Structures are given as C-alpha cells and as structure tokens.
Amino acid sequence: MAIQENRTEKRGKKAGKTSGVQNFVVQGSILAAAGIIVRLIGMVYRIPLIDIIGQEGNGYYTSAYSVYSILLIISSYSLPTAVSKMVAGRLAVGQYRNSSRILKAAFLYATIVGGIAALALWFGADWFAAMLGMPFCSYALRTLAPTVWVMAYLGVLRGYFQGHGTMIPTAFSQILEQIVNAAVSIGAASWLMKKGLEANLVYGETEYSSAFGAAGGTIGTGAGAAIALLFFLVMLFSYRPIMRRQNRRDRTGKRDRYGRIFAVMTLTILPIVLSSTLYNISSVLDNYLFAQGLRKMGQEGQMAELWGVFGEYHLLFNIPVALANSLSSSLIPSLAQAAAMRQRKQMIRRTQTAIRFTMIIAIPAAVGLMVLSDPICNLLFASHDNTLLVKLMWAGSAAVVFFSLSTVTNAILQGSNHMNVPLVNSGIALIPHIISLILFQQVMGLGIYSVVYSNILFAFCVCVLNSIAIRRHLRYRQEYKKTFLVPIFASAVMGAAAYGVSAGIRAILPEAVAQGRLGLAAAVVISIGIAVAVYGVILLKAGGFSRDEIREMPMGTKILRIAVKLHLM
Asked: Residue 54 region, left (φ>0) first, then alpha (ψ -120 to 50), else beta?
C-alpha cells in the first residue's frame, strides 16, 4: 500500500508510456472491482433492509438519499476528483511541497463547505421532505446530516492518495465502509422499526414505523463513513515520514501561497460541483415532478410505494455503473498528469482505453439485467410482488450503457482541463429530461415508466454532447467496431444463451422449487456463468481485442496464454 516516492521522476521515458496506460487500467480495475464488491454488498444488505422497512419505507429511504446525494456532491463528491487532479499535476512536475499544501487547503474547504451542507440538511429536512411529497422522510434526512460532514473529509483523503496514482486505499476503505454500513443499517432499522410501531399506536398513524425504519437504514451510512475516515487518518499518519522525505527532495523552488491554492481549488471544484449537481439533480427533480404529477391526478397516496419500486430498479442498474465511476476516479489523475506534461498521444490512448473498457462491461451488463430480470428481481426481493419491477428492468436496462458512458466522458473532459464542458452539457440535457418527464407522465400517462425513460434520454443527450466535445477539444476520433459493434453482437448472443439457460432450468425444476429462492439462485448463477463464457469467447473470436491490448489488462499475459491455448486468438 506504500506509494513509491520516485514514480513521478520517471515520467517521459519510453517504458513509462506503456506502463502508464497499463497502470491506469490496473488502478481503474482495482477501484472498479472494489466498486462492484461495494455494490454487491449494498444489494445484499438492501434485501433484508427492504424486507424490514417495506416498499413504503424504501420510498422514504430513496427520497432521502436523493437529497443527501446532491448535498454530498456540493460538499465532498467533487473533492476526490479535484484533489487528485491538483495533486497529480503537482507531482508530475516534482512540486512535492505544493502537493502537501493542497492537502491542507482541501481540509479547510471540507470544514467550511461540509459543515454548511450538514447544517442545511439538518435544519432543512422538513422543507425537503415536504417538497418531495413525503413528509415522513424527514427523519432519514436528519440522520444523514452528520454523514455529509464526515464524507467531506473522507473525500479529501481519498483524492490525495488517488493523486499519487494508487487506488488501493480508496478501494479498501470503500469495502470497509460498506461492510459497517450493512451491519449497522440492518440492526438500526430493525430496532427503530419496532419503535416506530409503538409510535404508530401512540399517535394513531401508520407511517412512523416505515419512517423510523428508513432512518435506521441511513444511520448505517454515517457509521460506515466514520470507520472509513478513521482508516484514512491512521494511514495518513503512517505516511507522514514519506511526505517529509518527498518535501525535502523538492528542488523546484515553487511555493504556492495557501490563498492561491484555496482559490485555484475552489475554481477547480466549482465546475465539477456544478456539472455533477446538474448531472445528479435529475433524481431530485424526478422525485419532485413525479410527486406533483401524482398530486394533480389525485394519486399522491401511491408516491412512497412507487418510488420504493423505482429505488429497487435504481439499485440494480447502478451495480454495473459502478465500473464507470471507479474507472473515472483513476482516469482523471492519469489524464491530468498527461495534460501537465503535454503528452497528447497518452491522453488519446487513455481516452480510448477508458471508453472501450467501459462499453465492454456496460453493454453485456445491460443485456443481462434485461433478459434475467425476472429471476434476479424475484430472487433478491422475494417478500413482495415484483411484476412492476421486472417490467421496469426490461424497459430501462439501457440506462446502464448511457449512464456508464456519460460518466466516463465527463471524467475525460474534466481530466483534460475542460472543466466547464460537462457542466454546460448536463445543463442542456436537463431541459429535454424535464420536458419528457412531464409529457410522459401527465400527457401519455406512463406512470413510473416516465421517470425511467426521461432518465435514459438525459444520459443519452449527455453522451452525445460529451462525444462531440471530446472530438473537438482532444481531436479524438472514436473507433466504433471494437468499442460498440463487437460488444453489441457478443452481448446479443450472450443474452439469448442466458435467457435460454434460465428458462430451461426453471422449466425442468418442480414449480415449487423453481419459484423459490433456491431454484431462482440456480437459474441466475448458472445463467450468468454461461453468459460470461459465451460473451468472452465471442468477443475474442470477433476480434474485440488485439494481443497487445490484452497484455495491458490486469493479468493480461495469463489471459492471452489461455486464449491462445483454447484457439480463441
């Protein structure tokens, strides 16, 4: 886990050009693997959590999280990106002392902005809850307020180590954070649910149990963040001797004033905050506009339950999108270093690698979620009827592709010093998103599907606008065959195989077993295993990767050796 002190001094060498891309892919893969593990843990613990708090409680939980996410973006979500970008840029030119000063300035920023966001969430909880059409989600909102502040400091430390080119601390802390989150969430939700049932009897209501249960689920988020912060503080303390040695080796003579660093950091963070806020505020707008639409149609009583189903859909499609988020975290400092050293070829190569790597995972994931939606949904959420959720997965699985691609292209533009472009593109895409949501719901009567379709349209618009910007600013020409066409073809065959295997397994099993969790688990696990094998074989046989590209992957040499032995290449 130690960071090599001399890694930035070897820049510009021929070996570094190959290892730079390989390291970027490896580091991105580490964070992506951690992101997927985190999402899987999140999915696993959300199953008993939803069983405890019900779909109504899940509606409160999802709504609270949408508001929390926006304040998190403002206070800390942008900090890993901004800090890693600034630190990587300084290290690329040997300014070790300035990288340490950036860390101190970032802590000041986190203290101020994180504290303001936490206070806004605590004192504004009732207002936010009323705006979203679910007054009882205010309990969950208040329990999330301290977490906003903790996450601000956590974001600074994650960004600092990412700027040094290592994703391992972030990856480990994310897994640790989610494990604690899972354990505390389930325990707190169960205990507070009982207290809520007592409050229902006292006040003659029915919502207190679901509201208290949702608040218990959000308590786990804060506990997990606190443990992750403690881990990073211990790590930072142990890393201080290395920081001192690096500072003594700084021969650049450049010392940025703290005022200037803070100003540059604010100017760096601001475009990321605004673009990320515009990119993610759609969830809050969806919640608000959908609640208003239901109110106009006299159906406001369905809001919490419908939003709970949408929360389940959002949970599932976000698992593969975790890859894009993780790859973006490693891409931004990598591109920032290449930009600081004016290595245009490296920037183009890393851009191409990031887009291809993302699509090779996102496209089959979307197809898999669609064709296996029935067994997956009934396996994970067996306590209630999943008819609507299955239909949402069929209708909205394409969101995986567009949200993954838009996330990575945002990172490419931010890492290449075009910070304002994602902001403008997200703002433009938000207009058709809002218009389509209103039309789909209030004119066409599509109900909760209107939220799904408008989200896909939003992400698609961002993808198109970002692609145009990348082509213009980086003079990058997108390759289509290996990036899109081959994965689409391989995914189509894979999807047919997965659907056939799943249907076959469930057909041969007794009905009672096939509809139970054991039968569903067998159908899902076996189908996914065969799907992965089919997809991999077709991808290689269709020329999806060259030998050199495989060698640059994690464990690429072993993968290539196996592929050659099996006559796949």
From this structure: left
* CA 537 to chain CA centroid, nearest Å: 28
Mean pLDDT of the chain: 81
CA dihedral angle for residue 165, residue 167, residue 173, residue 178, rounded to 10 degrees: 150
**Residues 6+ positions from 497 with CB-CB distance below 8 Å:** 530, 531, 534
DSSP letter assigned to residue 476: P
Sign of CA dihedral 392, 393, 397, 403: positive
Q: What angle do CA 34, 330, 250 make, to 5 degrees?
A: 125
Read off the pLDDT of residues 133-150 as tens digits, 9 standing for 90 and up: 788 888 999 999 999 999
Name the residue among 477, 463, 483 with its Cα closest to residue 360.
483
> What would the pLDDT profile of 40-61 be if each residue is shown by its tens digit?
787 778 778 888 888 788 888 8
Contact 524, 506 (CB under 8 A): no
| DSSP 8-state assignment for residue 75 | I
Q: What confidence category does residue 3 fall into, taking pLDDT thresholds of 50, 70 and 90?
A: very low
State how far Cα 112 lies from the chain centre. Answer: 25
Asked if 392 contacts 311 with a C-beta cutoff of 8 angstroms, the reply is: no
Among the ranges given (69-73, 94-98, 208-212, 515-519), the one the predictor scored with the smallest mean pLDDT:
94-98
Q: Which of 475, 336, 454 is nearest to 398 (CA)?
A: 454
Q: Which two tokens stand for residue 467?
A: 């692609």
pTM: 0.69
CA–CA dist 239, 87 (Å, integer)? 16
CA-based torsion, 133, 42, 144, 262: positive or negative:
negative
